[in-house]
Amino acid sequence: MNKLFWYHMFFGGVYYTYTLFNRSDSKLYYYRAKNGWDNWSDAFNTGTDFMEWLAYPFVNYFFFNFEMTMFLFTWFGFIGFIYFYLFFKENLRFNLKIRGYDVITIILFLPNMHFWTASLGKGAVIFGGLGLLIYGLSQPRKRIPHLLIGAYVSYMVRPHILVAVLIGMAVGFVLGKEKVPIYQKVLVSVIGLVFSIIMYDKILLYLGYDPNNFLESFEEESALNAHRLSYSAGSAVDMSNYNLPMKLFTFWFRPLFIDSPNFLGIIVSFENLLYLYMFTRIINKDFIKYIKDAPAMVKMAGVVFISISISMTFIMSNLGIIIRQKSQIMYFMLFVIIAFLDWQKTNKLKKRALIYNRIVEEERRRREEVEVQSTQYDVPRGG
Asked: Transmembrane segments in this chain: where (predicted)?
């Protein structure tokens, strides 16, 4: 974790250097935190304003300059890595290896994950919030502070992400392999339904949809966003005619070298190749068997990953935006895959143990038979 800290701080320096030569939202957040609000409380709102609300006291009360604020938010992003690491460790039995390399170490050091969570921006804050939230959900009774802080931060940055996580957790709780009383499952389902109804209008308004005419406004907003994102940079992907599987493939695994828009895209292509390789590990008949009886946390991660992925594919058609946004949710997919590989290894060890015990038992019986036979023929003289 010490190495990971300095690795992440290095990417904070990389992103800072990037802002010196390119347009960046980080500069805007800092400028507005310093000059855009008369009072700290005025900036308190969900979305972009929350970044400025977080930065406001450090910029105006402690007089942080841009560089100091950048590295403060880089540290916020590092908090996410800490708690995702703890989450992985406590929900897996083995230190899985692929071709001799520790899997958790590999995914913790993926460069794209660090680049977009190492700056003054939503990426660092939402990743830190999600880390706290997921860690809290793993043992909610013991980790109420983590749960509340993570949920609060996640809601303030992107409310729909929090809703997806909570719905995923409810689904995992109800369908997980853990033995839970029926009344608790019913209670969770009712609470989830009530929460969804209460949050429905707020989430749709935040996303820019009309709650009274959702389908039409969704189509209009999706088309508008796709057009805007396609032509806002030189990395457009025309996904309007793609079917859903192709849209998901594009969101999860592109760019892949041949369609990399720039040098950063080439680096990300190596990471996407790893994602693609990991994904192929669950193309296995055992995965269906596993997911039916998987723990609640695995099912939660799967629901969150799939639901957010599908929603994002309808509004994104720019590889630059895709590269940035998917970094928030790829750990959910990786957790499902690694948990499946962990389950496979557990089953292999169980089979080996059964075979070993059977061999030991047969050897014991054979020895007993030999002893019995030797006793029968060992007759004392004069008997």
From this structure: 61-88, 115-137, 157-175, 187-209, 262-279, 300-323, 329-344
CA angle 149, 150, 152 (to 5 degrees): 65
Residue type, 377: Y
- 231-245, 304-318, 328-342, 358-372: which has the minimum mean pLDDT? 231-245
The predicted pLDDT at position 233 comes to 46
Q: Residue 347, Cβ neighbours under 10 Å: how many?
A: 13
Contact 329, 309 (CB under 8 A): yes
Residue with tokens 């192929």: 280
Higher pLDDT, 49 or 263: 49
Reported in sequence order, the residue ranges of the chain that DSSP labels E, i.e. its strands, are 97-98, 101-102
Q: What is the pLDDT of residue 315?
A: 67
Stretch among 45-49, 221-225, 264-268 having the lowest mean pLDDT: 221-225
Q: 99, 274 in Cβ contact below 8 A?
A: no
Distance CA 155, CA 50 (A): 10
List the structure tokens of 326.
């998917």
Instruction: Give the tokens for residue 364.
Output: 């014991």
Q: Is the dihedral of CA 154, 155, 156, 157 positive or negative?
A: positive
Cβ atoms 324, 261 nearer than 8 A: no
| CA-based nearest residue to 171, from 198, 137, 201 | 137
- C-alpha distances in angstroms, 265 versus 154, 262, 312? 27, 5, 19
pLDDT score of 310? 81
Taking the CB of residue 78, how many other CB atoms lie within 10 A of it?
Answer: 24
